[in-house]
């Protein structure tokens, strides 16, 4: 395969690079933004896709791509932008996103949660993956809290992304128009020089 590595990266190396980029976070962020801005779609479609991915990142179910794709389809978003938007949820940010969702859900369901709060045997429950035991104290508040946080954060990302994509596309159209005008001027100049004398 073209541009394939001579020595393939191990799973640990891929995971490490996912947590900590090889170069820098700012360079990775610039590359990520350029990929979003260069999508061939309307500013609304790109922004709606990114907002869908951001919204899905707050959910604890591990099906972010499915949620992002479904929400993006419902609001006429770009699917690629939705998948890129799920990058907000990563091993670095998951503790903050899920913790905020859980705390928000606890505040919203304070009359419906057990009074003793988080069970002391939470580690064993997570290890055994007993969803029926996790539902009341953990999953239900996280799901309820994820909705308002995801909507609010998604709206912020929608506004910023739509503004950024709109500016990027306007500048690209102007550069293209200027380049086309220069080509036309050069063609007219060459035609004038090479034309036979009257």
UniProtKB/TrEMBL annotation:
Pfam family for this entry, one: DUF2062
Membrane spanning residue stretches: 45-67, 79-98, 142-165
Residue ranges of every copy of the DUF2062 domain listed in the record: 27-173
Keywords: Membrane, Transmembrane, Transmembrane helix
Domain of life of the organism encoding this protein: Bacteria
InterPro entries hit by this protein: DUF2062 (IPR018639)
Protein name: DUF2062 domain-containing protein
UniProt organism field: Manganibacter manganicus
Lineage of source species: Bacteria, Pseudomonadati, Pseudomonadota, Alphaproteobacteria, Hyphomicrobiales
